[in-house]
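Recall the central idea of this unit: under ordinary conditions, the amino acid sequence of a chain determines the structure it adopts. In this exercise we apply that idea directly, starting from the sequence alone.
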Amino acid sequence: MDNNLENLFDRLKPDFDTELPSENHAKRFAQKLNAQHDTRTVNRSFSVKKIWKPLVGIAATVALIVTFFITNNQETITNDLASVSPEMAETESFFTSTITVELKKLNQAADADTQMLIKDVMIQMRKLENDYENLKSDLGQSGNDQRVIYAMITNFQNRIDLLQNALKQIELVKQLKNVSNENTNTI
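Accordingly, the structure predicted from this sequence is:
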C-alpha cells in the first residue's frame, strides 16, 4: 500500500506547482477578499431591505386572517344554552353530566352480546349531537327563540332516554342469557 502511494506521488510530481508566489501576492489576495466581503455586505443589506417589505405585508395579512377567524369562532361558540341565562347554564350542565354518567354505564355494560346494540345507540347519539349543533346555530340566528331553546332541551332529554333504554335492553339481554344458561344447565 505504501509503495502504491509513493508511486502515485512520484508519477504526479511533475504536475505539482512548486513555484513561489510573487511578493505582493498576499497583499493582493487580502485586497480581493476585502473587496468581495464589502460587495457581499452591500448586496446582503440590499436584499434584506428588498425582502423585508413583502414579508411585512404577508405577516399583516396572516394576522388579519387569524383575527377574523378568532372573532368568528367566538361568536359561534357562545350560542348554546349556557349563553341564554344562568338557569339554562345549570340545565345544560345537568344534562351533559347525566349523559356522561349514562355513557359510562353503557360502556361498562358492553360485551360481545350487546356490541351491535351499543353500536346502533352510538350512531343514534351522533345524529342527536349533530342535530344539537344545528340547533346551536339556529339559536344564534333566532336571537334566543324559546322554540329553539325547547328543542335543545328536548334533544338532551332524547339522548338521555336513548341511553337509558339501551341500558334496559342490555339488562334484558343479560337476563335472557342467564335464563337460557340455567335452562341448558338443568337439562
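The mean pLDDT is 80.
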